[in-house]
Amino acid sequence: MHRRILVPSALAASLVLAIPASAADFAAGAPGIGDPYYPASGNGGYDVAHYDLRLKYRPATDLLEGTATIVATTKQNLSRFNLDFGLAVGEVRVNGRKAAFAKRGDRELEITPATPLEKGRSVSVVVRYAGKPSELKIGGWTAWHRTPDGGVAAQEPDSAVWWFPSNDHPLDKATYDVSVSVPDGTQAISNGVLQSQSSRLGWTRFNWRSNKPQASYLTTLAVGKFDITTDKTAKGLPVLNAYSRDLGDHAGAARASVERTTEVAEWLEEVFGPYPFNALGGYVPNVTSGYALETQTRPFYSPRQFANGANVSVVVHELAHQWYGDSVSVKGWKDIWVNEGFARYSQWLWSEKEGEGTAQELADYIYALHPADDPFWTVKPGDPGPDKQFDIAVYDRGALALQALRNEVGDEDFFAILKGWPTVHAHGNANVGDFVTYAEKVSGKPLAELFDTWLYEPSKPAGAAAAPAGAAAAARTGVRPAQPTSYRKIAATNSVHDHGHDHHRSHGH
Ligand SMILES: [Zn+2]
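Above: the input record for the complex with zinc ion. Below: its predicted structure, written as tokens.
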């Protein structure tokens, strides 16, 4: 969501009258927002401010019925425009009037309003739809998790097309009201604050609100039978965690991890500054996947995260994303390091705080773990390519880059950078270059070479000044660093980061 300067309406009206537009001045909005990694993601020509999703879901059949009301502003004169969406659409209205629409390919909904839309105007779009998300396959694959008692949408880089129409790219963030009606005894979990819930004629409606800009892939829905815990933080922030009643042997370890959410968020506030959103929590549905995802205010955790006992490290990772990824979002998917390098480094900092190995010890261990001919070093965290977007190197080499920065600028500047960045770019978008510029500004040091070495060179950095001090020492002596105590817990959050997605085979989120 981009902030706009409001023009007094009388003036706006006179400007419009002064420049009558002819049909030739209107053009179709682009079917993609311009992300080279995912050309079909998002759309051109408008910017969404708010989504109102009014849904009804039947767990027995997986039938989802919805009315999406989208409030947007046009950025060009539009003869037509696209939304990203995969389910069957029954009706579209633009500014109240019926609009023509057509499906194009797997995920494009092309909308032609009754009258063309002028640039800089507020526009409302209502889409009525129905379908079974589990039956929508794009490239043979579905992001929708069908569970024994419902369904879950939580996937990166996209999941929205399976359950609501959107401008599906992090560049266009918006606020959300998500209202979901489900059979009594079933719960619907989403982001933000549970404003209200009420039951009538056998159906219970849950009303959720996210009042800060939220990317479409961070918007989540989980329907099923959950046990819900609620509380407030010392500062009065509502906390809501939800656990499927069907977690089997993982139930205890899941709770022993996710119930640490408030404590972890308080610690992260010391590192990253004030928590950026209106609610806290997490949920563990009865899905068969293995990964976790930083869905805004309420991360998604697969039960398998807790197969070997409690793992607070994954909670640290997903909550760190609330600052790095959710509040400050990527400008394009190539900037994924700004999310994952920092979320991984926060796990190292938690290890350091818990006395289970310092960030330097973890850096030394991981640096030594991968010999120079390991393909690990060919992945460029600063621009990994769509096939390597969630490669382990984006995480581990990405965190090594931050340890190298810490060694270069010293702890005082390093932690000032970590805390300052989420404030400077709160609720916005930023890229890797923006971070380099910011780190140079805070530290007063030229850092382009350091980041080039650690984020862009397709080879193992050779010690020197840029390498973590300990790693350089180890390289000289040939002694392999000991495995820090926390390493296994952190590495466990690698193997469970598998998307189960053909296109992004390795690690995620
Ligand atoms: Zn992550």
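Notes for the reader.
Residues 85 and 307 are 35 Å apart (CA to CA).
The chain has a mean pLDDT of 92.
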